[in-house]
Amino acid sequence: MKIIKTNFELQTEILKIKKQKKSIGFVPTMGALHKGHIELVKQSVVENNISIVSIFVNPTQFNNENDLLNYPRTLEADCRLLIQETNNHFVFAPTVKEIYPNPDTRQFKFGNLKTTMEGKFRPGHFNGVAQVLSRFFEIIKPNRAYFGEKDFQQLVIIRELVKQLNLNIEIISHPVVRDKDGLALSSRNIYLTPNQRENAKIIFNTLSESKKEKKYFPIYILKQIVINKINSVPNFRVEYFDIVDGTTLKSITNWDDSKHIVGCIAVHVEQIRLIDNIIY
Q: Does residue 106 sit in the same domain as residue 217?
């Protein structure tokens, strides 16, 4: 596996790959890799001739300066994990200057997709995601790009980004990868204390129960049941829980309103923020 840190070096490698008519799979990450990332990389390796993983903490998608400063940066450990667990070919670990040689002032229009849920509580986040991914897509020109379904709203927006930019890239999603007790794997989980980690399993357990209970309750009642149950745990606070159409991300009020219904949640465990979702 080769580690590349400059656009020029990566472009040189990609030119060779394209001349050989080999397919490129791309897995964008911000590092602090875990099993969820590894599953994406394994899929990329299987489905493409060449697999590229980016490790880049993107400053434009953080609306909290402390969150950006405190985000874990573990490049050496990430590369060791990739070597041990996958047959990935390249890691692209650029500096901010490589990705943004000039300030990126582009504003992407995603309408309701970026103003609800995560977009409501993290203004500017998805515009930053669109900025960095459009740059990576421009540099790498992958045939396929891989994303986890844990960030469900992000996945919907990425599909819209590719559509708006008219890019010939297949966006492939992978189901949420979970720990044995159901907690969605996340780079932020390392910050949980043992007690918080034990209590955090209530998030997925409650979502799973809501899937069974949906035949008994209208949506507005079920949403409140989920919120109340999670909020009953000390120091747990639901920031939002919404049940939406999986394509438009618009809230629905009746179970018959959509054939693709998703429940999306964000929970604060003191200063740590966890997200998850469930397909109804």
A: no
- For 5-10, which contacts have Cβ atoms below 8 Å and span 24 or more sequence positions? 5/92, 5/93, 5/94, 5/95, 5/98, 6/94, 6/98, 7/94, 7/98, 7/139, 10/52, 10/90, 10/92, 10/139, 10/140
In this structure, what token pair is assigned to residue 212? 């069974």
pLDDT digits (tens, 9 = 90+) for 104-162: 999 999 999 999 999 999 999 999 999 999 999 999 999 999 999 999 999 999 999 99
Task: Please say whether the beta carbons of 4 and 13 come within 8 A.
Answer: yes
Indicate whether 105 belongs to any domain. yes
Contact criterion met (CB below 8 Å) for 151 and 32:
no
Q: For residue 127, what are its two tokens?
A: 């515009």
Exactly one of 37, 89, 125, 174 is catalytic; which is it? Answer: 37
Tokens of 94: 């650029």
* pTM of the predicted protein model: 0.95
Asked which of 174, 205, 220 is the last residue of a domain, the reply is 174
Active site (annotated) includes residue 174: no
Cβ-contact 185, 36 below 8 angstroms: yes
218 and 253 co-located in one domain = yes
Shared domain check, 132 and 29: yes
User: Is the domain of 77 the same as that of 23?
Assistant: yes
Number of domains present in the structure of the chain: 2
Q: Other CB atoms closer than 10 Å to residue 172's CB: what's the count?
A: 16
Question: In this predicted model, what pLDDT tens digit does every residue of 26-60 receive, in sequence order?
Answer: 999 999 999 999 999 999 999 999 999 999 999 99
